[in-house]
C-alpha cells in the first residue's frame, strides 16, 4: 500500500513560525529594556546592591577584628593565621571597605590593646571572649568563617551579577578558611 504524496510542498517558513518568532523577539526586546532600566537606578536595585556590598564590607571588617582578637590572645598562631587574615583584608578591600590600620598581619602588644575597642565596636568578639585554649579559639574562628560564608551564599539571589560572583568567590574562600582552621584545631 503506497501513501499519497503531500498535497503541496511548502517553500518557506510557515505563518505560525513567523508569528512565533515575532512574538519571541518582542518578548526578548521587552526583557532587555527592563534589564537596561535597572542599570540607571530607576528601580532601586543599585541601592540594594550597594547595601549588600556595604554589609559584606562590615562583615569582613568584623572578621578581621575577630582574627586580631585571636592573635592578641594567642600570638603563637601568627604563622598559621596571618595568611588567612590577609585574605580577609583583601575581601574587605574588594567590597569597598578600608583596610586601614587592620592591614598588619601580626599585631604588636600595643596595637592589640588599641584594637580591643574597635573589635568590640564593630560587633566582633573582644579578646576577652577568645577562648584561652588555642584549639577552641581556632574552632570559634572556623565557626565565624563558616557562618559568614553561609550568609553570603544566601544573599546571592538578591544581588546583581558581578556582586553575586564576588560574594560567591568570597564565600568559597571563607569555606576553605573554615576547613583549614578546623584542620588546624585538631
Short overview:
The chain has six helices and no strands. It has 186 residues and is mainly α. The chain is elongated, with a radius of gyration of 27 Å.
Give a topology summary.
Layout: H1 15-38, H2 45-73, H3 78-94, H4 109-121, H5 134-154, H6 161-185
Number of helices: 6
- The secondary-structure class comes to mainly alpha
Helix content: 55-70%
Backbone CA Rg: 27 Å
Mean pLDDT: 75
Which percent band covers the strand fraction?
Answer: under 5%
Give the tally of β-strands: 0
Spell out the helices and strands N to C. HHHHHH
For this entry, what is the oligomeric state of its chains?
single chain
Anisotropy-based shape: elongated
Largest sheet report: none
- Quote the distance from N terminus to C terminus: 81 Å
Q: Which stretches of 5+ consecutive residues score pLDDT under 50? A: 22-41, 101-128
List keywords for this structure.
elongated; 186 residues; mainly alpha
Please describe what this structure looks like:
With about 190 residues, the chain is mainly alpha-helical. It has helices at about 15-40, 45-75, 80-95, 110-120, 135-155, 160-185. α5 packs antiparallel against α6. The longest helix is centred in the N-terminal third of the chain and has 29 residues, at about 45-75. The protein starts with 14 loop residues before the first helix and ends with a helix.
